[in-house]
Design a protein that fits this description.
Order of helices and strands: HHHHHHHH
Radius of gyration: 36 Å
Distance between the termini: 82 Å
Shape: elongated
Structural class: mainly alpha
Strand content: under 5%
Number of strands: 0
Largest sheet: none
Helix content: over 70%
């Protein structure tokens, strides 16, 4: 039988394999494979980076648009309050306090000088607000914070309530004009005071309260939405600047004047709602 030197044979085979792997052909092939792998990986990373930049840019543009819409609604509500609601309600509640005190004195048997009250039956112009545009833009936007979605729902709710209250007040004004009530009965019903027969019609008084409250609600929550989206847009812009150099600016809002004048409702009045949400992406 032929006799084989196994160690020598294996060593020869190994030398042949090493020589083959060190050949210029294999070196070139391995380099090509490595280059192809790195190329695919680089292209994939570039595509991901581009897609992320596109998503962030679109989110920034959407946030900026919502800031504009929300601040527009805020300014409309504040203008309505300043021009119509506040002058009417301030005079109404001031006169009502006088009428209530006078009625209490008369009920107690005290004598009083005749007092004249001016019934203000001026109608309030309803707001025309792009709420559907705001909703569509917000609910379809990318990367939208949950707090912003909740704020849009609140804005929609109080716009609906305010519109209904203004329309109801207008209907009541028409009813007052048609009723031909005696002046003292009209006064009782206008201020929501108890009549001498014990009955009370507080409907107009309650509507005045509602108009004031809902005007404040619309102004506050739309301002809160504008400020929330301004903060959100700033965060998006910071992320986008890490990917690309040219980035749109963030639309900014400033309601400090309305706060200082007392026209904007206090945040303390809405603390129970605000405490349930944290501003975050």
């Amino acid at each position: 039988m032929p006799c084989f030197d196994l160690p020598s044979t294996l060593n020869a085979i190994w030398v042949s394999i090493v020589g083959f792997l060190n050949s210029s052909f294999i070196s070139a092939s391995l380099s090509a494979l490595a280059g192809a792998g790195l190329g695919v990986w680089g292209a994939q990373k570039l595509a991901e980076r581009s897609a992320k930049a596109k998503e962030l840019l679109e989110a920034l543009r959407q946030a900026n648009a919502i800031v504009v819409l929300a601040s527009t609604i805020t300014n409309q509500a504040l203008a309505l309050k300043r021009q119509q609601v506040k002058p009417l309600s301030d005079q109404y509640f001031k006169d009502r306090d006088v009428a209530e005190a006078l009625r209490g004195n008369l009920a107690g048997g005290a004598q009083a000088e005749p007092t004249t009250f001016q019934v203000q039956l001026t109608k309030i112009t309803p707001l025309t607000i792009p709420i559907e545009t705001l909703k569509s833009l917000t609910f379809s936007a990318h990367l939208m914070p949950g707090r912003a979605l909740a704020l849009v729902s609140m804005v929609e709710q109080f716009i609906t309530e305010l519109t209904h209250a203004i329309e109801t007040r207008s209907d009541m004004i028409d009813a007052f004009h048609k009723s031909s009530l005696p002046s003292h009965i009209l006064c009782f019903d206008y201020y929501g005071l108890r009549r001498s027969d014990g009955n009370t019609n507080a409907m107009y008084h309650d509507i005045m309260v509602a108009v004031c409250q809902y005007t404040n609600d619309v102004a506050f929550f739309s301002a809160e939405l504008a400020e929330e989206l301004q903060t959100h847009a700033s965060r998006i812009r910071e992320k986008l600047l890490k990917i690309r150099r040219e980035v749109p600016e963030v639309n900014s809002v400033d309601f400090s004047g309305a706060h200082q004048s007392g026209l904007m409702p206090s945040r303390a009045d809405y603390e129970s709602w605000l405490s349930g949400f944290n501003s975050q992406d």
